Amino acid sequence: MSSAATRPTGPDDLWSVDEHLDDILATVRPLEPIELQLLDAQGCVLVENVTVPVSLPPFDNSSMDGYAVRVADVAGASEEFPAALEVVGDIAAGAADPVRVGPGQAARIMTGAPLPPGAEAVVPVEWTDGGLGEGPASGMRARSLAPEGAEGQVHVYRPAEARAHVRAEGSDVRAGELALKAGTVLGAPQIALLAAIGRGTVRVHPRPRVVVLSTGSELVQPGEELAPGQIHDSNSFALTAAARDAGAIAYRVGAVADDAETLRTTIEDQLIRADLLVTTGGVSVGAYDVVKEALSSVGDEDEPGGGVEFRRLAMQPGKPQGFGTIGPDHTPLLALPGNPVSSYVSFELFVRPAIRALMGLTELHRPRARAVLKADAALRSPRGRRQFLRGRYADGEVTPVGGAGSHLIAALAKADALIVVPEDTESVEPGGEVEVVLLG
């Protein structure tokens, strides 16, 4: 972690949101590059420039189903005076040794098939009688049903210019050109390009493995009956889903009871499959907030800079937070509060950027915008705290959803933005301008 000389040092001192985030991002580094198969690299960041070994397309080919012809043979062709050409064969996509087209000849050609020697253009089948002698055709009959279509005579009703309906070799990209540059995020179009130029694998920063676990003896798996005093575990599901949305490979661990030894053992067991650990709950000051107790003896106390530090942040919700590294590999761990809204807001502000930093991305944060507050009453916020309220954003306006309570999951589910009220602002009147974090 970064030097404590620039951080709050007293037990009653508060960290700002930015100080806490800066400390996290100063610690987290992109994962070491690995070579992955194309589909396994989806969503990953390329770490090397990729050049084109073979031009695309690699040869002149037809963009239409029709006939490969010489321009002079169809000059002046019309429906009244069609050009009659001898059909010398078929050329299908993948043909390795296409027939030669000579004077007065044509070859039936399919989309993607190589332009044959001697041919200069392609006339679509709709410009011909399809070899049937019955006027303009609407399409070709399947070769299996009419193999004779590759022979005989075809009438062409329109002329064609040179290179008409021909995709030129290298018209997409040429050999030696840059296909993709380092830092590119590999989506479906980029993977298509890599496959098209013959790359079966690519070197990338892998997607981080994120382990999410919630704590609390009151938590019950969804689908199970609730006993008095129990609630269903929602945090681990929310944060696992959010981690996947951020680009991680996320694993959810069932809720751990309020027992420090059990939690300690669970965390140690999970280190083998974690590039980042996220806990939720147990970071406040209650007698049963066991994350602090458990993490006091898990980790890398013998390693410089190791261990987890628990802090109070000048924010609402989400004041109690923990961050550090644990285990022999200095695995980053973020300990989030247990209230559902606090947990989710903390994820968006701190965990999501950490995941994207591990991926080697440069865009770490959700987009932000300025919006006009649309509300019936002023928003109140405690001085000295940066408040994050839930809202719905549309057309430059944002409307608060629910109240400030950190337990209001139903309101959170309706929100698509966080309304940010700065530390030095105690009230925002309707019609005032606020900053919003766009969540989706």
Radius of gyration: 32 Å
Q: Which shape, going by the Cα principal axes?
A: elongated
Low-confidence stretches: 1-5
Share of residues in strands: 25-35%
Q: Main sheet?
A: 6 strands, mixed
Mean pLDDT: 90
Distance between the termini: 31 Å
| Helical content band | 10-25%
Structural class by helix and strand composition: alpha/beta
Strand ordering within the main sheet? 16-13-17-21-20-18
The total count of strands amounts to: 28
Please tally the helical runs, counting DSSP H or I stretches of 4 or more residues. Answer: 8
Would you kindly provide a written description of the structure presented here, covering whatever features stand out?
Helix 1 packs parallel to helix 7 (340-358) and helix 4 runs parallel beside helix 7 (340-358). The chain is built from eight helices and 28 strands. The chain has helices at residues 17-27, 71-74, 188-196, 235-246, 260-270, 291-295, 340-358, 409-414; strands spanning 34-37, 45-46, 50-51, 61-62, 66-69, 83-91, 105-109, 121-124, 153-156, 166-167, 178-180, 201-205, 209-215, 219-220, 231-232, 249-256, 276-280, 307-312, 315-316, 320-326, 331-336, 368-373, 379-380, 386-394, 397-400, 417-421, 427-428, 433-438. With 440 residues, the protein is of the alpha/beta class.
